[in-house]
Structure formats: structure tokens, C-alpha cells
Specification:
The protein has 112 residues and is an all-beta fold. 0% of the residues lie in helices and 52% in strands. Strand 9 (92-98) and strand 10 form a beta hairpin. The protein is globular, with a radius of gyration of 13 Å.
């Protein structure tokens, strides 16, 4: 059974940083494309970032480019999203995603 468990969210002030983690199980994590998506209050899902297997090429939405970094630790079956210079508009529930499966999400709130 595929399982994705996100953690690391919280309340942070504008300009602050957070690192999200996603523990994966039930599939061959090291050979899988993984992504982060988010859903802000009252809005639809928004793609944030993708990381490929192998060389680990990464891609980012324009809204987070230069501020967020996606990475993976295949030995730990864990996906990360390092977020810096957070803005109020980054407030959302963040989900890691494999194929069409998402975890339960972790809330990120950016407010003073």
C-alpha cells in the first residue's frame, strides 16, 4: 500500500523558513518522480515542484522559484521541501504526491 506522510508545517512569520518532509512507503521511492503541490484556502491545487529520479532534475513553479528547494534522500525514502523567504501567499496545505496519490498534507501558515 502506497503511503505518504508529510510533516514539518507550522506557523512562521513572513521572511521565515520551514522544511517539509514526506516519508514514503509502499513503492520503489528511488525510481519515482515525486512532487509537492499545495492548496491555499478556497483555491484549487497548485503544483509547486517536481524532482525526478536518477540525476534528480528539479523544476519549480514561478511563484516559488529561487525560494524553495526540493530534494530527496533515497536511502531514507524521504522527500523534502526547503522553503525560505516565506510570504503570506505561501499559506496553504502542502502535499507530497506520487502519481495520483497524495498524503494527508501539512499546514503552512505565513503570518505576522
Amino acid at each position: 500500500e502506497v503511503q505518504l506522510v508529510e510533516s514539518g508545517g507550522g506557523l512562521v512569520q513572513p521572511g521565515g523558513s520551514l522544511t517539509l518532509s514526506c516519508a514514503a512507503s509502499g513503492f520503489t521511492f528511488s525510481s519515482t518522480v515525486m512532487m509537492w503541490v499545495r492548496q491555499a484556502p478556497g483555491k484549487g491545487l497548485e503544483w509547486v515542484s517536481t524532482i525526478y529520479s536518477g540525476a534528480g532534475s528539479t523544476y519549480y513553479a514561478d511563484s516559488v522559484k529561487g525560494r524553495f528547494t526540493i530534494s530527496r534522500d533515497n536511502a531514507k525514502n524521504t522527500l523534502y521541501l526547503q522553503m525560505k523567504n516565506l510570504k503570506p501567499e505561501d499559506t496553504a496545505v502542502y502535499y507530497c504526491q506520487y502519481s495520483t496519490t497524495r498524503g494527508q498534507g501539512t499546514q503552512v501558515t505565513v503570518a505576522s
